[in-house]
Amino acid sequence: MLTKISDKIGGARDATSTGESRRAEEHRQAPDSTAGSDTVELTSGAKLLERLDKTLSSLPDIDASRVEAVKTAIAKGDYEIDASKIADALIRSEREFGA
Questions:
Q1: CB contact set of 73 (below 8 Å; sequence gap of 6+)
Q2: How far, in whole angstroms, is CA 17 from its chain's centroid?
Q3: E strand or H helix at 98
Q4: pTM (2 decimals)?
Q5: What is the pLDDT of residues 19-31, one digit of tens each?
C-alpha cells in the first residue's frame, strides 16, 4: 500500500510539473498582441513646449555679456532704473500668466 501511495504522489507531482511546463511554454509562444501597438500623440501645445524646451536647453543659463554690461553701468553710475517700464512688464506678465 505504501508503494501505491508514493506512486500516486509521484504521478501527481509529474502531472503538476508537466502542466506548469505546458503553461510556461504556451506563454512563451503566445503572440504578444500589444507589441508595437502602443502609440502616443502629442497635442500641438505639447509639441510647442517640447520645441521650446529643446531651444531653451541649448541657451546658456546666464548671459555673461549682459551681466558684465550691467556691472559696468552700475560701477560708473550710469545704470538707470525705469520704474514705469518695470511696472508695465510686471502687469503684462501677471495678465499673461495669472488669473
A1: 79
A2: 42
A3: none
A4: 0.35
A5: 556 666 665 665 5
